Amino acid sequence: MTDPTPPAVVLLSGGLDSTTCLAVAVREGFAVHALSFRYGQRHAHEVDAARRIAARWGVARHVVVDIDLRVFGGSALTADIAVPKDRPAASLATDGVPITYVPARNTIFLSYALALAEVSDARDVFIGVNAYDYSGYPDCRPEYVRAFERMANLATRAGVEAAARGETALRIRTPLLDLTKADIVRLGLSLGVDYADTTSCYDPTPDGAACGHCDACQLRLKGFAEAGATDPIRYA
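Structure (tokenized):
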């Protein structure tokens, strides 16, 4: 008998995109195993946001993993490097890879997600990457997602056993990949997402207020404006 509530792993950062992605997984009938990371990011308020969101949505399990990507540095999010502010919106995805890119972050996160998927008997891993309104990160592109999915099915027991049956074990699900930020906001609102729970800012104040000027804030504000909605979070 097929499980009426099959498990799925959802990478949950506490931001707008990942929360919308979680809502999509719930709508599709999955029992969500949410996975968040405390990785030395300067915007660690997002872990608290992820906990609130996981509780609100009644996930089956919420795992918060501690890793320290500060040992590598190389990013304004994990090193003593200024976060870019007020970059022209038109240049966000055309000026090359920004300094807020964290080296190999999505590859690291998805690798942990594969491990959780295997022990949870999940075939679906959801990640809220977006290749339309984004900051130019190489690990948000569709070709990256396709390549990781191929690797996942080669590198896991679940993948090998499924291949022997002529099946595909693991799917990397990217329901937001081709949506604009406005489309994502509209989708989330239609699914009952309370965006007041979320945080997107790369450089928030100590009490968690968003700066309103980093790439993440600019894309978020643009999305709400184009969706004809009001962003409910606090801005400094």
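The mean pLDDT is 92. The chain is about 35% helix and 10% strand.
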